[in-house]
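User: I'm curious what two different proteins look like when written out as structure tokens. Can you demonstrate?

Assistant: Sure. I'll show them one after the other, since each token string lines up with its own sequence. Here's the first protein:
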Amino acid sequence: MRRIFWGLIRFAIGFGLLTYLAKSGIVELQTLSRLQTNWPITLAALALMAVDVLMMSLRLSWLLHPHGLHLPVDKSLQLTFLSFFFTAVLPGSAGGALAKLFYAAKDNAGRRVEIATVVIFDRVVGLFSLLILALASAPFFSQLIATAGALRILLWIVVVLAAALLVLVVVCLFDGSGMNRILRQILSVWPWTNLPDRVIATIGSYRRCPGTLLAALGASIVANFSVVVVAALAVKTLHPHDFSLKMWLVIPMGYIANSLPLTPGGLGVGEAAFNSLFKLIGLGGGADALLCWRIWTLPIVLLGFAYYVQGLGRSIQDLKGGTERRP
């Protein structure tokens, strides 16, 4: 009952923010009618969303393979659709990741730690690629950044986050003993004494297959670039006068804010973040663009709901035939 209560509270906050944005004129709901007359752009956006889903599915499948875990692409697609559904109904993107973790680890009792580590690592690769996209466009807008102090601060935060993630992964890959000691300190209150060993060993194994890491990062960049283009298409459709290349600088940051676990799917929070970020670069239509993205993701969310109702069988096959290992 407590979880249901807080879930309802988050939904109420999300819809309250969205209502405020609509009444204040930040979100212009009437502009959404332009989607009917610009259906070619809608079709292009749906195609890009399909690319996003496919790349995310391939990324997880590739990252599992070095551990003797086989996830067929069709099963990975189902997990990705399912994660989109849970992302839409649970706070931020964490709900989707937890759902993917649950269904991926199901019927693989002996490899749950490895599977959970890979699923979390998969999210880290996705976040890192989104940060890279934000930084990659910065050199092209140096004059804008120089005159916008708030934007400059945000970019420095992106730099720090990207560097922290990179250092964390590098340490896990090449200095497992040091990270192991840190994890043991963090998990000292838990009875799972060899959990850090298994987590570090899982990440450290990618040292022997750098091609897998590069392929996963490449797939992430393609996936995130696709959704950035989707947001740009939304602006082109709803607010063509605000369409500008400057959007590439802030759209990735907006998606990061939308993934914060505050309201279901970032509802309201994401729109407010997009609106503020677009204002920083002198553009409007940010909130409408994210709302349009939500509409375009509905087919994916509904398909994920269908898989949830149908139920997923075993998704991952353990090629090594691992047995239960108690942490």
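Here's a second, unrelated protein for contrast:
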Amino acid sequence: MIILYACLVLLVVNVMLPGSRLSRLGHKLWRHTWLVWLALAVQVVVISVLPDGRGLSEAAHLSTYALAAAFVAVNLRSAGTFVIGVGGLLNLVAIAANGGVMPATRDALEASGWEPTPGHFANSALVADPHVQLLGDVFATPSWLPVHSVFSVGDVVIVAGFALFLHETCWVGRATRLIQPATTESSAPAG
């Protein structure tokens, strides 16, 4: 959920910046957003509504990444979406390598103040023998924040991809764009 909150903050900040036009999102909407909403709904059910579905919870958690991958595949016309897909792939590698659970470090869990409920499925947890721990939840938001949690390198890449999507979609004028479209004009002086 930390990704969702970070993206909402980016959206609010984007609205306040001069040169940004949120109305431009209407011209470049993502297609098949229901895939993302379905993936989020499945994660909420697995984590919060039916947290003791051992075995099934891990499989359902992994399936949400297939939904997200399908969303990225149909929206690859945006560099930001591609970066989001890379972040999701990094998370998928860590989760798949650890049996459907994102491996978290003890330091990150303690720093965030977040403790999973014993006996319930946690999408992020301490894993006895973690694989690719570097891609796991190794960062934390401080426990004093209203939204305190752990997050991964993949999560950071996803949020950066969303920022790039907002930039390439909402910013007006070529001088403000980070990514310049290719021009067909010759750079030779007229003579």
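A detail about the second structure: Strands lie at 102-103, 124-125, 137-140, 150-152.
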